[in-house]
Amino acid sequence: MSAMLEMKQVTKTYGDGDATLTVLKNLELSVRGGEFVAVLGPSGSGKSTFLSAAGALLTPTSGEICIDGESLQGKSPQELTGLRLRRIGFMFQSAQLLPYLKVEEQLLYVAKQAKLGGREASGRAAMLLQRLGLWERRGHYPEQLSGGEKQRVAIARAWMNKPAILLADEPTASLDLDRGREVVRMIAEEVHSEGKAAVMVTHDERMLEWCDRVLHLENGVLVGR
Amino acid sequence: MFLALREMRHAKARYCLIMVIMLLVSFLVLFVTGLARGLSYANISALENMPAGYFLIQDDAGHAFRRSQLGAEDFAAAKEAVGAGNAAALGVQNGTITVDGAEVKTDITFFAVDMQGLLAPKLAEGTGISNEESGRAVVDAKLEESGVKLGSTIRDQTSGMSWTVSGFVNDSSYSHVPVVYINNADWQTMKQGALTGNNGTPADVPFNVIALKSSSVQAADLAAQLDQVESITKKQAIASVPGYAAEQGSLQMMIAFLFVISAVVLAVFFYVITIQKTSQFGVLKAMGTRTSYLAWSVLCQVLVLSVISLALSLLLTYGMNMGLPDAMPFQLEGSTMAFTGGLFIAVSLLGALISVVRVTKIDALTAIGRAGA
């Protein structure tokens, strides 16, 4: 299967002159479809920078990034916004659901943004919510959900537009161990059933049993152990 | 719309409160506007209702009718230029009258007009008067409150002349006092008394201005052709009625302030809400929502709020108008209402622009690596 995310010689430096700080240094990564990769590293190791670059939110100083075979180089901000909408699913720390949308509307909103037809969108939303055990909760507001449920809604929202890759930024940070492991397991299940890829950034080594590959971000490069 | 409406549905109390404020402000705007229009109409309705668009006036009179003095030659020239039916001489004179059978004196303004001409009063009640018959007058219906009835005799305090009231007209005030229409024959008698020693023929008695129903070019040409005469529009003439500008000016200032207040209140409210939602906007942008969509969402909310509160305040104004006593001058035409409402919405949207600018500046990058709600 072709690579869903391809990062070649990606370097990101901040500042200039003597005060440069190299966060990513010729970083190489290739994630295939159906693969769930965990990226570990302590705080300040550049996990956020890595994820922002992979998620087309941050332009690297040098190097090339391809999402599902499509290079990010030379794209305008509008084109990158469209690419994030259709090709990338995001999960953030503490879910970041919109407080004023019901669970089902959280999903329909992203579908609407991607101009997905109404019937197709509600069908897919129903399927995802059922798979994640949220169907009974579809008419609730986020404030009525537990932390684990919120993060499950975030999983469903991230997969809604059938992205090539899901990028998760510490999805378990605000959850206890059991809830966190459950969320990670569900991400893994979705990766395998959708045949797409996922990259999860975390600092918690207890969350790795469902991951296909574990990489460590050290001195600006990814290393396996 | 999707986000805008759902957010308002979720935070009903918050948006209802701001709507109530906007409702009150827009109601006040409409009410003061109606009051200003009503006062203006009560002040100069006699001028406002004249079918003339332009006036010829002496150029050193400063647009004030009573200071101007024009003669028969000017009138003849005007009639020749625009046609006899489209020019009319007007004599204006302040007066105080006593009404036979009533104990009070009343201030009035005499309008001396050609009873067959352009400025002839449009009767609401009674019979008209001819140009020849002397001693008869048509008066503004407001004089009824001073005890004037059809057939009453009114007496001018200064000249001692008296008239029998033969008819009433509606909405005819000048400088807040009712107008008494008399014919030119009586005007000449009245003025000859004042101009003793002049011993001229009746035709020599001057009047104040000439009303013209003509194009602006015709009026300007005519003014240029005559000595020491200028042409002014009806609007200019109204603005120069004593007290008119001062009265309207203070009301206009209140209205202007209300517009500014409504813009600022709305701008501050939405700005604070936008700042509160900075991280939400960052997440939405990271997920691929276009900035233009978010900007529209903010504008949509402002539009919905201002349109609903405006509609409610229009209803409120309408109801208030029904319940107001007649003595309170209040007038709000459809065109004024539409203009005021349109301006209110435009000003609201203008106030929302700083929030829109704020939204466009939020960086999607803030979504990554950040904890919090």
Describe this structure as you would to a colleague.
The complex is a heterodimer of chains A (225) and B (373). By secondary structure, chain A is of the alpha/beta class. Chain A has a single domain, classed as 3-Layer(aba) Sandwich (Rossmann fold), CATH 3.40.50. Helix content of chain A is 33%, strand content 28%. Chain A has six helices and ten strands; from the N terminus they run E-E-E-H-E-E-H-E-H-H-H-E-H-E-E-E. In chain A, the strands form two sheets. In chain A, strands 6-7-8-3-9-10 form a six-stranded mixed sheet, sandwiched between helices. In chain A, strand 9 and strand 10 form a beta hairpin. Chain A is globular. The mean pLDDT of chain A is 91. Chain B is of the alpha+beta class. Chain B folds into two domains: 2-44 and 244-367, no CATH class; 89-207, no CATH class. In chain B, 50% of the residues lie in helices and 17% in strands. Chain B has helices spanning 2-10, 12-48, 72-82, 184-194, 216-225, 234-239, 244-276, 278-286, 291-323, 334-361, and strands at residues 54-58, 87-99, 105-113, 125-126, 136-140, 153-156, 162-169, 173-174, 177-183, 209-212, 229-233. In chain B, strands 2-3-9-5-7-6 form a six-stranded mixed beta barrel. In chain B, helix 1 (2-10) crosses helix 9 and helix 9 packs antiparallel against helix 10. The two termini of chain B are 24 Å apart. In chain B, 40% of the residues are buried. The interface between A and B is medium-sized, with 35 and 28 residues.
